[in-house]
Design brief:
By secondary structure, the protein is mostly beta strands. The chain has a single domain, classed as Galactose-binding lectin (Jelly Rolls). It contains 4 helices and 13 strands. It has a 7-stranded mixed sheet. A hairpin with a 7-residue loop joins strand 9 and strand 10. It is globular, with a radius of gyration of 18 Å.
C-alpha cells in the first residue's frame, strides 16, 4: 500500500539524525574584482558594452546606456548538482517594457542566466571554455534565463530569439518598472527547467548576467546581490 504524506518542514537536527544534510547555499561572488572571481566579458560587435562593476563581494552594479553585453563565469564541479538559486535585485532606471520574443525589440534591465550542460561528460568537455558561446557549444548546453523586463506576466516562459532551442526566458519582474530597494527572488531551477525545456537539467556549469538597452537607446541602472545556489 502506498501512503501519501503531506509536505512538512523537517528541522535540520532531525535531517542530520537521519543522515541527511540540509541544503547548503553557496554564494556566487563578484568582488573585490570581477576578473578575480572568474567573471569574463562577452561584448558584441558594433554595440557599446554595459558597465558592470563589483561593489564588494556580494553585489554587482549595472549601468547600460544604449548598450548590451554579458558577463559570465564557469562554476566549479562541486556546484554542478545545485538545483535552486536565490538573489536580490533592484532597478533604479529602466528601459520600457518590450517584446522579448522579437529580436531587435528585446531590451531588458537584468537577465540572469543559469547554464546547464547536457550531461556530465559534456560538462567536462566544456571546462575551461574561452567564451560563453563555446561553453554552450561544448556542453550541448541550455540556458534558463530569469528576466527583469518584458511585457508579459510573471512566470511566463518566452523562447529566446537569439539562442533558439537552447535558451528560454522566465519573466520575473515587468519591464519599465523601477524599484530602488532590493527585491528577493528564489527559483526552483530544476522545476523551471523542466517546464521550459520538457526534460531534466544536466550539470549546472555556468552563470551569466546581462543588461540590454541598445534597441530603445535607453538607460538601465540596476544591481544584483546575494546570489547563491543550493
Amino acid at each position: 500500500m502506498i501512503v501519501a504524506m503531506k509536505h512538512v518542514a523537517i528541522p535540520a537536527f532531525l535531517l542530520l539524525g537521519l543522515g541527511l544534510a540540509p541544503a547548503q547555499a553557496e554564494p556566487v561572488t563578484f568582488g573585490p574584482s570581477l576578473s578575480g572571481q572568474g567573471w569574463k566579458t562577452l561584448n558584441f560587435r558594433g554595440l557599446k558594452p554595459v558597465d558592470f562593476k563589483a561593489e564588494g563581494a556580494a553585489r554587482l552594479a549595472i549601468r547600460a546606456d544604449g548598450a548590451a553585453s554579458v558577463i559570465w563565469r564557469e562554476l566549479d564541479e562541486s556546484l554542478w548538482a545545485k538545483r535552486q538559486a536565490k538573489w536580490r535585485w533592484k532597478v533604479d532606471q529602466s528601459v520600457p517594457a518590450t517584446n522579448l520574443a522579437i529580436k531587435g525589440s528585446d531590451d531588458r534591465a537584468i537577465a540572469l542566466y543559469f547554464v546547464f550542460a547536457k550531461d556530465e561528460a559534456s560538462a567536462k568537455s566544456a571546462k575551461g571554455a574561452a567564451s560563453l558561446s563555446s561553453a554552450m557549444w561544448w556542453s550541448s548546453g541550455a540556458a534558463l534565463v530569469y528576466i527583469w523586463g518584458g511585457n508579459g506576466a510573471r512566470g511566463q516562459v518566452v523562447a529566446s530569439p537569439h539562442m533558439g532551442a537552447s535558451g528560454k526566458l522566465v519573466l520575473r519582474q515587468p519591464g519599465g518598472i523601477t524599484n530602488p530597494t532590493f527585491l528577493p527572488e528564489a527559483a526552483d531551477l530544476a522545476a523551471d527547467f523542466r517546464r521550459a525545456f520538457g526534460r531534466e537539467p544536466g550539470p549546472l556549469v555556468g552563470i551569466a548576467i546581462s543588461s540590454d538597452s541598445d534597441d530603445t537607446k535607453g538607460t538601465n541602472i540596476a544591481a544584483i546581490e546575494a546570489l547563491s545556489v543550493e
